[in-house]
Amino acid sequence: APLPAGAPRGAARGDLLVEVEVEPSATFRRPWSAQGRPEDVEVLADVDFWDAALGGGVTVPTPLDGRRELALRPGTQPGDRLRMKGYGLPRLRQPPRAPGSSAPQQRGDQYVRVGVRVPRRLSARATRLLRELAEEVKGGGGGGGSGSEEKAKAA
């Protein structure tokens, strides 16, 4: 094939290599872990401690689909990593879709790392209720706790 107008004559033919630099995002990060894929993304979401304890929902941003609701299971812990299948970036090196095709584009996953918000100030009533809850859980009535108390007693 002839060279396009303005192309330097005598240049060797071959592959064109393009390097792209992506600016870091303030919202998303790429989880380059052993099982992570380049099309996966991670976002941090802070939830209130009662939503983490009782279960609930949190609205999180996604890279291409706006904001989406994610359900939290009761007992969600700080640092838990929840998967949103198919909400990541488009997969690289996938065959192009045929024009007019309704086949879904393959995408990576979005992972949500949970942080737990704890109120800095509590009313007197809220403090009393929280202390009652702590006594209930520590006393074995709630089945919660970290288990470290039992491990310490066994040692």
What does this structure look like?
The chain has 155 residues and is α+β, with helices and mostly antiparallel strands. It has 3 helices and 6 strands. The protein has helices at residues 49-54, 124-138, 148-154, and strands spanning 28-29, 41-48, 56-61, 67-72, 81-84, 110-117. The strands form 2 sheets. Strands 1-2-6-5 form a 4-stranded mixed beta sheet. The longest helix has 15 residues, at 124-138. The termini are far apart. The model is unreliable at 147-155 (pLDDT under 50).
How many helices does DSSP assign? 3
The major β-sheet equals: 4 strands, mixed
The percentage of residues in β strands lies in 15-25%
Q: Strand tally, please? A: 6
Overall radius of gyration: 25 Å
Strand order, largest beta sheet: 1-2-6-5
How do the helices and strands follow one another from N- to C-terminus?
EEHEEEEHH
**How many angstroms separate the termini?**
79 Å
Task: List unreliable stretches of 5+ residues.
Answer: 147-155
What is the 3D form? elongated
> What share of residues is helical?
10-25%
- Derived from helix and strand composition plus strand pairing, the structural class reads alpha+beta
Features:
155 residues, alpha+beta, 6 strands, 18% helix, 22% strand, disordered C terminus
Question: SSE layout and pairings?
Answer:
Elements: E1 28-29, E2 41-48, H1 49-54, E3 56-61, E4 67-72, E5 81-84, E6 110-117, H2 124-138, H3 148-154
Parallel strand pairs: 2-6
Antiparallel strand pairs: 1-2, 3-4, 5-6
